Amino acid sequence: MNAWKIAWFEYRRRIRSKWFIIGTFGMPILILGISLGTGYMAGSGAGIETKNFGLIDETGFYGEQLSLVLDKRFADNETPPFNIAVSMGSFESLKTQFDELVNDKTLDGYFVIPYDFISNPVLRNYSRSSSTFRSSDVIESELKELLIKEKASSLQLSEDVLEEIFFDVDVAHFDIGSSEERETEELIADYIAPFIFMFLLFLGIFTGGQLLLRAVLEERSSRVIEVLLSTVSYNELMGGKILGLGLLGLTQSAIYLIVAFFAGSYYDLSIITPAIGLLYFTYFILGYLLYAGIYIGVGALFDSEQEAQQAIQIITFIAIIPMVLWTMVIENPNSTLVNVLTYIPLVTPFFMMIKIAVGETSIFQIVTSIIVMIISVYGSIRLAAKVFRTGILLYGKRITLPEIYRWLRA
Amino acid sequence: MIEIKGISKTYDSINAVAALDMTIQPGRIYGFLGPNGAGKTTAIRMLMNIIIPDEGTILFEGIDQRPPSNQIGYLPEERGLYQKISVFETLQYFAHLRSVSHPNDKIRAYLQRFDLGNRLQSKVSELSKGNQQKLQFINTILHDPQYIVLDEPFSGLDPVNQLLLKEILEELKQAGKTIIFSSHQMDQVERLCDDVALINQGQLITAGELKTIMKSEGVQRLQVTPVNEKDLTHQCFSAFISERKNGSVFIEIDGHSKQDIIATLNKSIDLKSVKVAEPGLEEIFIHLVQGSSS
Questions:
Q1: Separation CA B162–CA B146 (nearest Å)
Q2: How many C-beta atoms lie closer than 10 Å to residue B257's C-beta?
Q3: Which of A257-261, B142-146, B187-191 has the highest mean pLDDT?
Q4: CA spacing 20 to 30 A to B187: which of A47, A164, A227, B210?
Q5: pLDDT per residue over B112-136, tens digit each?
Q6: Do A231 and B97 touch (CB under 8 A)?
Q7: pLDDT (tens digit, 9 = 90+) per residue, A215-268?
Q8: How many beta-carbon contacts under 8 Å exist across A and B?
Q9: Distance from CA of B47 to the nearest CA of A (A)
Q10: For every residue of chain B, which 3-state class applies, written as one string?
Q11: What CATH number was assigned to the domain covering residues B220-278?
Q12: For residue B75, what is the nearest residue in chain A, using CA coordinates?
């Protein structure tokens, strides 16, 4: 009963705080803003600077041709990625002049099409830095096309024949049993959805964990803990905190899922099914409880938030693994590595959520992963209770690892 | 009745409390006195079941179990308050935890009494130290507990509020509550206690009824006031262990009769008044600590 009272107090005072409101609604807006903003910036050409390249054409043919096709290619670009100035002549005679132009920064670099290019197609690039690297890809592909056309005409193949030979292949995507072709937006949403689920889980679990850490440190440093412990038991206090801040995390997750559901419906995408929703909350609860144990334990050991945050960083670092590996999990959800990582309790909820959202898991994996999590949660909370009980009132004392080990064995 | 039987607590081979025995009678004020670092807070935390003794037991009404939280009120040594919530919310939360019925009326009444009636919605962090201490005290007694345990309750309070606190403690005693409090300012609180325990370096120096201790342990002294102030330094005092204070000379009676002392002094100087001085608790404490160490 007391645990519920504590839970309600923690829940109520935090859900009304401006930081919860800012965090809950601000974070998705911020993430959305950043992704849309960067997308716009990338598309608008802002931040792109037109590079100037020289081209020494020893063949006396390809340089001019290349210049023409590039003009055509960049005709619609307000800021073309690069300009190219063609000079015909030998590398030996022009080298000094071009090197100087690069050194005084008139040119960003220059290319050389050697005289034997048709038999030995190697384009040489001279530059000050690696910033010309991407541009050479474009030049390379255009030159390749020119070479193919040149070789085709020497073989007396007509343009029509060339078009017959070179064509693009399109892929049309269908769901099993459906005759309706899937749209690109839908495919992208399907690809991104698992990441979003994992990210929301991540956000919910760690927001709850961090709040828990702060709540313990606040009570410890303000000595409220003593008044509380004279009123309720250790287990009630710890349980109440975990419960209250867990409910806060659940509220946050529910808000996110509802928003995601309506956003999905608006675009006619059904990324959230009841089964996914149910499993999301299952993994949220288990993941949160696992980390709650860790955060409470750490909170009971340190006097200052700074020290506690440093200690918790190691754990958070492990939990970042799914954030780094998510594309690998989406593309290879049942590879041996992914399957092994899935059963490491600290990352199980995140990996499982991706696999479930991708649709590449089995009932067996879901059940076994939940069992692994339940055992881990039991261990985590049990150990946390021991550390909490002993460490919470040891003020101003640096606690050593052997001491913690002794408490855990007690 | 609370019986503390042989409780000990050791931290890193330092005996914070060593084999402490105390009996606290119901309906009395029990002073737990000693200098800073004597082990008072550790003993009180053990009494409150916040820390577990390495040895010994604590019995409440003969049972080795802490009474329910609504029967015990505890004021820790340092401020135990949430800083970012309001005065009213603080008291409401703890009242809720202790299942207080109609808490809002009680909260308002206590805040009025402690001159905090207009600070209901203030955040705790906005209160002065003294007001925070008052708030904490209200929090300790709001649920009308049978046992009231106060660790250094007078610290941070100005003289007016110290007086108010003493007045309320007297009222609570009249209402039959058992009050245990610790303090390092012995003379300030000695008139408040029925019983005391004096503790030093984790060990009990003495414990029992204050009057009895005063009588048995106190060094009887004569307070002598000469007619002429210059006689305060007269050579005749050198025959005794004496101390000059506030225009009088305090002479230890130990080993002499009162009549002998007066007769000896009368031979040399004129005396305005002679009376037996009541020893202070602090003097008794120093006397006992010196006695035990020698």
A1: 22
A2: 9
A3: B142-146
A4: A227
A5: 998 898 998 999 999 988 899 999 9
A6: yes
A7: 888 888 878 888 888 888 888 999 999 999 999 988 888 888 888 777 777 766
A8: 59
A9: 10
A10: CEEEEEEEEEECCEEEEEEEEEEECCCCEEEEECCCCCCHHHHHHHHCCCCCCCEEEEEECCECCCCCHHHEEEECCCCCCCCCCEHHHHHHHHHHHCCCCCHHHHHHHHHHHCCCHHHCCCEHHHCCHHHHHHHHHHHHHCCCCCEEEEECCCCCCCHHHHHHHHHHHHHHHHCCCEEEEEECCHHHHCCCCCEEEEEECCEEEEEEEHHHHHHHHCCCEEEEEECCHHHHHCHHHHHCCEEEECCEEEEECCCCCHHHHHHHHHHHCCEEEEEEECCCHHHHHHHHHHHHHC
A11: 3.30.70
A12: A227
- Averaged confidence pLDDT in chain B: 86
Predicted local distance difference test score (pLDDT) of residue A402: 76
Do residues A201 and A289 both lie within one domain?
yes
3 state SS of A160: helix
Question: From 3.40.50.300, 3.10.150.10, 3.60.40.10, 2.60.120.10, which CATH number describes the B2-211 domain?
Answer: 3.40.50.300
Contact A9 B94 (CB under 8 A): no
Q: Are A227 and B76 an interchain contact pair (Cβ–Cβ within 8 Å)?
A: yes
Could you tell me the pTM of the whole model? 0.74
Any chain A CB within 8 A of the CB of B89? yes
List the single residue in B with minimal CA-CA distance to A215.
B82
CA angle A238, A243, A245 (to 5 degrees): 100
Within a 10 A sphere around the Cβ of B230, how many other Cβ atoms?
Answer: 8
Confidence of residue A59 (pLDDT cuts 50, 70, 90): confident
